[in-house]
Each structure stands twice: as structure tokens, then as C-alpha cells.
Amino acid sequence: MEKTQIKMGKSSYRKYYLDYWRTFMVLLVIIHHSYLPYVIGYDWYISDVVKTLPYTWSSITLDVFMMPIMFFIAGYFAFPSIKNGVKRFITKKIIRIVLPFFIGIIILAPIIMYISIIHYFPLWDISFFDFWLNYYFTDQYMDPSYFWFLSLLFFFFIVFAAVYAVMKRKIENTYKKSELKRVSKLSIIVFVIIFLATSIVLFYLTGLVYPDGSWYYFIDIKFIKMQITRSILYLLYFIMGIIVFIKRIELSKKFLKATPLLIILTIISTVAFRFFKFDIYIQAFFDMGFVQADLQFYNAIIHVLYCFLLFITLMAIFKKYLNRRSKVLSRLAANSYKIYIVHLVWVVIIQYSTVDIQINIFYKFLITAIGAFILSLGTGELLRLIKHAFIKTNTLLSGNIDRTSNGLIFGSDNQLKKKRKVINNGK
To answer: What does pTM read for this prediction?
Structure first.
């Protein structure tokens, strides 16, 4: 992920808690994916014969707030990133998002799909290369897997870039005015109410047409897919991130003092939410994803409010307790994007390797989560070292070429030093 150092005008500052908060979300994604083989009624790449309610409840809970927070943080840093120019902004996003996306769907996603195929169809004697060459890129097997996040995020960035290009002066003036006059508490409350009401209405209406949690391909393009109801929320949280930055909205010190109460409220709400949401989950499982209209309305209200509660609580926790530099957390944060890119390959490999081992599923989950994290972190560090070695080699080669050119045109290094000395003495 990009570092959260913000340079606006003459000042620059770091918000360390956002680095660590985003990293924590990536770790939760690993945990979430690690216990999906044991979730009741979930169609995953690897399926264990043993299913359990605790993992099902945990899956339902984590699925609510993880990605909205990721999109909020991405939106929060969209404006300072685009200040260097729309063209540079888009170019940077192509390199950081589009390139990994295509590497993912061409190399990493086929690995995941191949492992799933040999798991569900063990009698199918096929090599990975044969599967990749002859089967993967067909409609039946091609799947973007978890790289849907990158395609949707890039789409949001492109839309934002277009809006910024048209409304650049107005957006920048709003940001400058917010420095002179901070947003009032009443305005923030009104903004939150409008945000929640919009989220509930759109979540409910889209849920009537597109069942919550169901995946859909974009215009039959097999490498782009999304969950319609969730994507609406992701867009709203992305927009909220942009507005919060431009309006300089912050959690006040007085609000942060209530963090312990927020934690207690979140724990109580989580227990209540799990029981309600589990009933929705079971009904959707037996009714092909659809639920009754009145139940869908309550589902929209509870889903949106619970998501926002987790969002505010986690933001308060990280800002209050982790808004300071930590070498360990900073190194982890520097690798968080790479960890996300490669983690599911390691998760599925470990799940496939342990699925037939006769041990408690808790130990399988633990082995998967810890193993995938360590291997993903190691992969991230390896990629970082390769990148630095490449840059260093490039720099050295460029330096040698420059010195060689200077030697051919102006003389050797010693001759150049003598000439500089003569010139300096002449001054």
C-alpha cells in the first residue's frame, strides 16, 4: 500500500494509525479466507467435511465491515494523491493497480483455480500448464478471484479523476476553506445521518433485485465481477473518505475518550448482529439468495448501522492507541499491499495440503492463517529486495554509462577533477 505521508502546501504529516488500520484489515482478510472451508453453506475453493457455527458466524461478521473500511482509506488519500496532476495520478494507479490485477488474473488466480479443480475432481489427471493453456481462459473456469477488489478500486479512482478534472477549482477551494473554518458538529451529524440513510435505501433497493452477497460478472466479462449490494456500500465509503479528507473531518479528543464505551457497545452489538444475520444467511441459502422484502429491509438497516459502528470503533481504537511510529508495524504496513496480492495463493495451498489431515479444524485454521501470513510476508520482503536490487543495479549502470561518456567526451575522472580545480582557482 502507499505510505500515508500527506504533503499539502508547505506542510507534511503522517497518520500512522491509517497505515496500521489498513494493515489490520488485510490481516483480517487472511483470517477470513482461512476459515472459509469450515463455513456452513459457503462455496469455497477448498471444502472440509467438517463445518462449524462459530466460523460461520465469524465469516458473516467480518464480511460486513472489512472491505468498506479498505475503500474508505483508499478514498481518503485520493485527493492528496491527485494534487500532482490527473495524468500522473492515473498513470500511478495503472502501475499500482491495473498491472497487479492482470498479473493476478493471468498467473495467481489460475493457480488457485487449478488447486480447487484437483481438490474437487481428484480423478482428473491434468497438469497446471495444460489447465492454464486449454481450460482456464474459458467461460467455465476463468475467475478473477479476490482481484475483484483491484478492478473496482481502479474504476472508483477513474471516476474520481474525471470528477476532479471537471470540478478541480471547486474541490480545491473547498479544501482551502476547510482550513480556515472547520466543519461544525451539527454539520457532521447531518452528514452522518444522510450517509446512513442513503446507504440503507440503496442497500435495500439493490437487494430486492440482486441478492445480498451474490456475485455478478460485469457485462459477461469473466475477469471483472462484483457484489452489487456491497459495491454500492463500497462506493459510498470511498466517497465518504474523499469528503472526510477535503473537509478535514477528524475524531476529536473528546470523542476518543469514549473509545472504551464504543468497544463495549460493539461487542454487545456483534452478539446481537450474529443471531439476526445468521437467520438471513440461512434463508438466503435455501431460497437461492433471496429473502422476504420486509426482512431485507431490516437486513439493510442492521447491516448498514453495524458496519458503520465497526468503522467508527476501529478508527477510534487505531487513532487513540496506535497513532505513533512503530518499526515493526511500519515494516508490516510497507508490505501490506504485497501481502494482499499473494495471500490467497498461500491460503489455498495450505488448505489443500491440510484438508485430509485428521486434526481439529481449529488447528487447520491456525496453520493456514499463520502459515499464509508468514509466507505472504516473506514473499513481500522478497519482492521488496528484488525491487531494491533492480533499482540499485540500474543506478550503478547509469552511473557507469555517465562516467564512460564523460571520459570519452571530456576526459577521465582524474582529468575532470583537474579541470574543475583549475576553474575553481580561476574564480
So the answer is: 0.87
